[in-house]
Specification:
The structure holds two protein chains of two kinds.
Chain A: E1 6-11, E2 23-29, E3 32-39, H1 47-53, H2 56-63, H3 71-86, H4 92-120, H5 126-146, E4 155-156, E5 159-160, H6 166-190, H7 194-200, H8 208-213, H9 219-223, H10 230-233, H11 254-278, H12 289-296, E6 305-313, E7 316-324, E8 332-336, H13 338-342, H14 346-350, H15 355-365, H16 369-372
Helix pairs in contact in A: 2-3, 3-4, 4-5, 4-11, 4-15, 5-6, 6-11, 11-15
Chain B: H1 8-16, H2 33-50, H3 60-69, E1 85-87, H4 92-101, E2 107-116, E3 121-129, E4 137-144, H5 161-171
Chain lengths: ~375, ~220
């Protein structure tokens, strides 16, 4: 037998398939990965300290920069935490608008994530743009409500910044009508593609027990067969009103995560349909009028205390931890970033597979460096 | 296994794991907390006032600007929570194992640290949940700022791996027993721990904006 020697190679920080400035130190034996050490910090800007310096209202704008694919859900989680701390009530209509925006965000994120993942696999351009077309339509909606395509800055304490206009409701309904066609086409295009199956089946397997121990969340834990979703585990906002299923995988490989994302888009569409139907009957205004003035000023003061709130972001469990000292900015503002914690399992997922598989496995976790390094 | 209410864990730990709870109450080291903070803020203000260069975008100047906008009231230090289980640092692995194996809290959501210079301690907060759902349990460990050492729970809860590294990097809490006890965000040669409240904020050194009337254009 030939004597082999382990070799250490660097992937990144400048690499097209690391989804940002992310570095992987891979120890390889021939083509097989023996150990993988992720190196963080190339995009670190001490986001948590910014939250301590800026006021509560200003901090909404920087939550957009965490996971810049779904700023709406980031804002939702942050506003929920502040509302919990200050006991601000959110009117029903505002809750509906928030859920609509959150679920649109989830579709946006998954469409893009699958597109990028397929691009990592070598399907250049076409599939990514296929997903991006849907993303574009949703971003048009976000632009109409928030004024910006990615950094929406739409949610406020006690509601949202602007009401949905009848035009916009029509636009969302139009999008929802066309969406099932897209997902069917997408599935037919990709699901039984031979290259996709060869590269993703039984690759990057994460067993059920390991997934729970590593605290991974989102499509990664559901792909491993654990139906853990905050919308069910600890329902927030008005998610207990909607009927939807939580898709789970059976093997825990890369292909399962892809299938889970596809099905989650369908479920989001289901929630959106119900929410759009119930929206006209929802009582209340788009924002809690008592806090409307307060949320426009810088001086919203929260009572001393602390709160921890979790929301289901498309990447996993996004948590905000705020300690208040009674002032107008947080004493401690901490974020549980799903992208970061999901990377804990990367080494175990990649061990024993080839170097080319690293890219596919990393793409299947769906990380955003803005959130990992924050 | 039934879900525990807030405060129930404390009583349970007292009964089942004697000596695990931390009996000490934090002592306010400086006497009047608000007075110390006022002093610090004034120092920073005088520093920036003597400096003719434009105010940096971040750091104390931003805080100062906010204070101007809102009012001059000084922030106080938040009171420490007494409801949750506050455990001794050396007994934390036992408590974590007890939570997982006996009470069924099999999912560690978050490990985070909060710095309280006024009390002279750093609080590390662990949020435990169940995979099946339901509310969680909070376990706290309070360690002195100058000797912040907590045994790592990463060997038992691998999910704590990166969060403990963040706490070490940004807060300077040491976790003996961690398999890869290194800085995570800052570079290895970096000194200090930036999220500590007394870490010196240098502002933005690349700030080239000049105010009108101070010799600069725009």
């Amino acid at each position: 037998m030939l004597k082999t020697e382990e070799l250490q190679i660097n992937i990144g920080p400048q690499h097209p398939s690391t989804h940002g400035v992310f570095r992987l130190m891979a120890t390889v034996d021939g083509e097989t990965v023996v150990h993988l050490e992720p190196v963080f910090g190339y995009l670190h800007r001490n986001h948590e300290q910014l939250g301590e310096i800026w006021t509560y209202l200003q901090t909404i704008t920087i939550t957009d920069r965490l996971d810049y694919f779904n700023s709406m859900i980031n804002e939702h989680g942050y506003c929920m935490t502040v509302e919990k701390l200050a006991s601000i009530e959110v009117p029903e209509r505002a809750e509906y608008i928030r859920v609509i925006m959150s679920e649109l965000s989830r579709i946006l994120n998954h469409a893009a994530a699958i597109g990028f993942w397929l691009q990592d696999m070598g399907s250049w351009g076409t599939t990514l743009m296929f997903g991006f077309r849907q993303r574009e339509m949703i971003m048009d909606i976000f632009e109409s409500v928030g004024g910006s395509r990615m950094m929406c800055n739409y949610m406020r304490f006690g509601g949202v910044a602007r009401d949905l206009t009848p035009n916009l409701v029509e636009q969302i309904n139009l999008f929802l009508e066309g969406f099932p066609q897209f997902i069917d086409d997408f599935e037919r295009l990709m699901m039984e593609n031979e290259i996709l199956l060869a590269r993703s089946r039984n690759v990057g397997v994460l067993p059920k027990e390991l997934a729970a121990a590593y605290s991974v969340t989102g499509p990664v834990i559901r792909g491993s067969g654990i139906p853990y979703d905050i919308r069910r585990a600890e329902p927030y906002s008005i998610y207990d009103r909607f009927a939807f299923d939580i898709p789970v995988g059976s093997v825990g490989d890369v292909y399962d995560r892809f299938l889970v994302r596809m099905e989650e888009m369908r479920q989001s569409h289901r929630i959106l349909r119900q929410a759009m139907e119930q929206l006209p009957q929802a009582s209340g205004s788009y924002i809690n009028q008592a806090y409307k003035a307060a949320s426009k000023q810088q001086g919203l003061r929260l009572p001393a205390g602390e709160a921890y709130c979790r929301v289901e972001s498309p990447k996993g469990e996004l948590g905000y931890y705020i300690v208040s000292n009674g002032g107008n900015s947080a004493y401690r503002y901490g974020i549980r970033a799903p992208s970061l914690i999901n990377l804990t399992a990367l080494n175990d997922m990649c061990r024993g597979y080839t170097v080319a598989d690293i890219v596919v496995i990393l793409g299947s976790i769906d990380i955003v460096m803005g959130e990992v390094d924050r | 296994m039934p879900l525990l209410n807030q405060g129930e864990l404390r009583a349970l730990l007292e009964r089942e794991l004697p000596g695990a709870l931390d009996p000490t109450r934090p002592v306010n080291r400086y006497g009047n907390v608000e007075a110390t903070h006022q002093l610090e803020v004034e120092d920073q203000a005088s520093d920036t006032m003597g400096d003719t260069s434009p105010p940096p975008a971040t750091g104390d100047a931003a805080a100062e600007r906010q204070a101007d906008v809102v009012d001059k009231e000084e922030p106080s230090v938040p009171p420490l929570s007494q409801d949750d289980a506050v455990v001794r640092a050396e007994r934390l692995p036992d408590v974590a194992a007890f939570l997982r194996d006996r009470l069924g809290y099999d999912y560690l959501s978050r490990v985070t640290a909060v710095d309280y210079p006024a009390y002279g301690l750093i609080e590390v907060v662990y949020h435990f949940y169940r995979i099946e759902g339901g509310p969680g349990q909070i376990v706290r460990v309070r360690v002195p700022r100058d000797n912040a050492v907590i045994p790592s729970i990463t060997p038992m809860w691998p999910g704590a791996n990166l969060e403990e590294r963040v706490c070490y990097d940004l807060f300077g809490v040491h976790f003996p027993g961690h398999p890869y006890h290194k800085r995570i965000y800052m570079w290895d040669e970096f000194e200090g721990h930036p999220m500590r409240k007394d870490f010196e904020k240098i502002g933005d050194s690349y700030y080239h904006f000049k105010w009108k009337g101070e010799g600069g254009e725009e």
